[in-house]
Specification:
There is one protein chain. The chain has 196 residues and is mainly alpha-helical. It has one domain: Four Helix Bundle (Hemerythrin (Met), subunit A) (Up-down Bundle). It is built from eight helices and no strands. Helix 1 runs antiparallel to helix 2 and helix 3 runs antiparallel to helix 4. It starts with a helix and ends with a helix.
Length: 196
């Protein structure tokens, strides 16, 4: 297993640790929890960079990286709902978008095509990491700056909806006609030729 794939795998292994720290109601664990989360997020940045730089992009890496990303973000957001730091409805919409885009990508892959990440999608990920970090640190560490977490949630929600719409429109434009053509049954011979 190469280094980029090992980093993706380490991100998956950091998720249970993040959950334990975040859901343990001990005073003063906010900084440790934020540090674990940021370390996991940093592996996301590093694995992609190293894979491209070393030309070590592999099918395993292409599978592990998005799974690790979604596990990390979903675990963090769901935990924040559990400790009443994020509204459940916002998290449901944000995570619903993640899984909808993943489904579109799987359909595209089955057709031999890809739906690469858009700039808005990458911006959403950055906003998610910043927002989750602020929400983890909370009022005890940030004081009045905690309001930035609420603002960040609205920003993430907006980016999720807009970028999700972009993926859907790109899917319709590039792949839906092809899928419809493949799925359409062949016309019977009698309907294709005039009867003499």
């Amino acid at each position: 297993m190469n280094l980029p794939n090992s980093l993706s795998l380490s991100r998956i292994f950091l998720v249970p640790l993040l959950l334990v720290i975040l859901l343990t109601k001990l005073q003063g664990n906010e900084i440790l929890c934020a540090a674990v989360f940021l370390l996991a997020a940093l592996t996301d940045l590093l694995d992609g960079y190293l894979a491209r730089r070393r030309r070590q992009i592999t099918p395993l890496g292409q599978l592990l990286d998005p799974i690790a990303d979604k596990l990390l973000i979903a675990a963090a957001f769901i935990s924040l709902v559990e400790i009443h730091k994020a509204p459940a409805w916002m998290v449901v919409v944000i995570l619903g978008r993640e899984y909808a885009v993943t489904a579109l990508r799987h359909i595209a892959a089955a057709q031999g095509r890809s739906l690469p990440s858009s700039d808005l999608g990458k911006s959403k990920m950055v906003a998610e990491v910043a927002t989750i970090t602020i929400l983890i640190l909370g009022h005890d560490i940030l004081g009045e700056l905690e309001i930035l977490g609420t603002i960040g949630l609205w920003v993430v929600l907006g980016l999720a909806l807009i970028s999700g719409s972009q993926y859907f429109l790109r899917f319709r434009r590039e792949l839906e006609p092809r899928i419809a053509t493949v799925a359409r049954p062949a016309e019977p011979a009698s309907s294709r030729h005039e009867v003499a």
